[in-house]
Design a protein that fits this description.
Blueprint lengths: L4 H14 L13 E3 L7 E5 L7 E6 L7 H13 L10 H14 L21 E5 L5 E4 L4 H4 L12 E3 L2
Parallel strand pairs: 1-3
Antiparallel strand pairs: 2-3, 4-5, 4-6
Helix pairs in contact: 1-2
Protein name: SprT domain-containing protein
Length: about 160
């Protein structure tokens, strides 16, 4: 589904202001779509020496999500524009909690859901510690793969090549 991210951002901005959360008024009005982001839904960037102080971008993968998810991501990024909130510490979490309680959002610091399914790559080489049995998968024929006898595990055991 195609969303009008700019209109949603304006609505959410008004909701944040209604709760007396000190969100910045100097945010670039156009929400940027990032087609390359595969590990995050959104990003708030602080701009230095430009017309606006902040830019918000969202992943193109967000278009497959429901509107509440999209609104939660935009609200999450908007909260990063508050003073001392470019992190996920106590003040940011307090503001996120206010938004969640007032508007039934699901604003969290992180998400467990993957944006893109990654293919498991086959392992070409497997090394193992003789003492603790920890395994070390490797894709390339590196020095440790070629000469495991020169290396040892963190536990002090010797490294051997299984295949």
């Amino acid at each position: 589904m195609k969303y009008d991210y700019n209109a949603l951002m304006k609505e959410i901005y008004e909701e944040v202001r209604a709760l007396d959360i000190p969100v910045s008024g100097n945010i670039e009005p156009e929400v940027q779509i990032n087609t390359r982001a595969k590990k995050r839904y959104g990003r708030c960037m602080r701009l230095h020496g430009e017309k606006y102080e902040y830019r918000i971008e969202v992943s193109a993968y967000l278009e497959d999500k429901d509107e509440n998810c999209v609104r939660s991501v935009l609200a999450h990024e908007l909260l990063h524009t508050c003073p001392r909130c470019m992190n996920h510490k106590l003040l940011w979490k307090t503001y996120a909690g206010k938004m969640n309680n007032a508007y039934s959002y699901c604003i969290t610091a992180t998400t467990k859901e993957a944006l893109v399914e990654y293919e498991e790559k086959p392992v070409k080489y497997m090394l193992q510690c003789t003492k603790c049995k920890r395994q070390f998968p490797r894709m390339k024929l590196t020095a440790v793969v070629q000469h495991p006898e020169r290396y040892h595990c963190g536990c002090g055991g010797k490294i051997i090549r299984l295949f």
